[in-house]
Amino acid sequence: MKLTPEVLFAYGEDASLPNGIYVGSAQDEIAATGCTVILAPKGAICGLDVRGAAPATRESDLLLPQNMVQQVHAIVLAGGSAYGLAAADGVMRFCEERNIGLSFANIVVPIVVGACLFDLGVGNGCVRPNAEMGYLASMLALDGLHGNQKENEQDSEYESPCDSEHRHEQDSKHESPCDSEHRHEQTNHQMSEQSSKLENKQERQKLKVGRVGAGCGASVGKLLGADYAMSGGLGACSVRVGKLLVSAIVAVNAVGNIVDTANERMLSGVINPNGDGKAILAPLDAMLLAANNASSQSLKAVKDCNDKDACYDTNPSVNSCANAKNKANNKASDKTNDNSGANAHCENTTLGCIITNANVDKCAATRIATMAHDGYARAIEPVHTSNDGDAIYCLSTCTTDAHPDFVGVLAARVMEGAIHNAVCDSVRLSAMAV
After folding, report:
1. Which residues contact 352 (CB under 8 A, 6 or more apart)?
2. How many CB atoms neighbour CB 348 within 10 A?
3. pLDDT in tens, 332-383
């Protein structure tokens, strides 16, 4: 007799999403940046936990448990650092056209939250996710066109609620009661048809993972700088336990290595400078090597100073040796903290989202997001550094009863799996060389 429900994990494009949640990604592959939009047209409970010290977020205060708004309609994960927040403007416009959002009189206000990662050092840093890219990602999420431009153009001809009402007001002046009734029947039929299409799409939607969306310009293993980094990406993982579904989507852009702790192996990270170009250097060894290099540079700078005749200047007013040594030490110290060349640690931040059908409130969703950071800690070493903006959202459709702690445990597991999935095809990023 079976006493426990079966636990089913799925990875990458096979990962499942709760009904009513749609995901789309758009990217500029040449510029190596993009955005991923998670849509909840009917609204969903949302929580957020930020652990990194350098976040770039939108509407974060709105998600605090004590604040009024309970549901959001979209989450945007984007590259481009703070510039990438502009992608949310396109998501707002898309949602307004589809009448998605909170209703106020004749206007809808979509609640769109988001966070960005730093990928400006990859590809063309002058090209970042914008409103147009956010709109396209939203369209790909809800319509599933996947680049079909002809269908794209046909389906993008939507009116805002304000335009629609104005048109209906004008039309109603010239129609008979029968025409009016017929028009409303047509509208209801179209809404029913659209709902049916969304349900059908939910069954066939496959997630895109890898170098797409917010993961397009992502990278990992930057403890020795961009020359020895490997590519990150967008990953997904889900687990189903009975009726409960917990999924994770993550854009992996970490300074540290990606590790598989269960099997004691490194999946991606710092390329060993003394190896064959394929071997991965352990995070602690990379940090010790970086510190040793910085120390060597400092000693060399002081030695160069001592070798100069200026250091033996007998003029006490000049005090050149002491000044030169101080400058050398300061220069070496600045180089250690520099964000360029071999010390480029700034291109970081891992952004994730837990998506579940568990019946939770905003406070519990925030706690689940907090617990999901355990998945970061298991899969990324080091994590939550001073140059990271690591953040995790938790989005819930609230259709299945489950204890928040149990959901949190599963959330950590699927987040770890999604991170592994994101880098499974990692290659060295020659485009990142400086």
Report:
1. 248, 249, 250, 251, 372, 375, 376, 391, 392, 393, 415, 418
2. 27
3. 444 444 444 344 455 688 999 999 999 999 999 999 999 999 999 999 999 9
Q: Please, are residues 373 and 51 in contact by the beta-carbon 8 Å criterion?
A: yes
Q: Which residues contact 183 (CB under 8 A, 6 or more apart)?
A: 171, 175
Phi, psi of 136, deg, nearest 5: -65, -40
Residue 37, SS3? strand
Amino acid at the residue 236: A
pLDDT band at 283 (very low <50, low <70, confident <90, very high): confident
Instruction: State the burial class of residue 273 (Cβ atoms within 10 Å of its Cβ: 0-12, 13-18, 19+).
Output: middle
Residue 76: DSSP 8-state: E
Q: Is 180 helix (H, G, I), strand (E, B) or coil?
A: helix
Distances (CA, A) of 385 to 121, 266, 286: 18, 19, 15
**Model pLDDT for residues 150-181, shown as the tens digit of each residue:** 333 333 344 444 444 444 454 544 455 445 45
Q: Which of 211, 264, 244, 216 is nearest to 355 (CA)?
A: 244
Which has the closest alpha carbon to 122: 279, 281, 257, 230? 230
Nearest to 29 by CA among 227, 209, 215, 236: 215
- The pTM for the full model equals 0.77
DSSP-derived letter for residue 43 is E
CA distances from 158 to 74, 127, 279, 349 (A): 19, 28, 52, 35
For residue 356, give the H/E element and its range. strand 351-358
Token pair for 127: 């090209």
Q: Prior bond to 382 cis, omega within 30?
A: yes
- Contact assessment for residue 34 and residue 79, using Cβ atoms and an 8 Å cutoff: yes
Amino acid residing at 389: G
Report the SS3 class of residue 312.
helix
Q: How far apart are CA 17 and CA 182, in angstroms?
A: 37
What region, left, alpha or beta, does residue 432 occupy, with left being phi > 0 and alpha being psi -120 to 50 degrees? alpha
**Does residue 200 contact residue 142 with C-beta atoms inside 8 Å?**
no
Give the CA-trace dihedral at 88, 93, 98, 100, to 10 degrees: 50
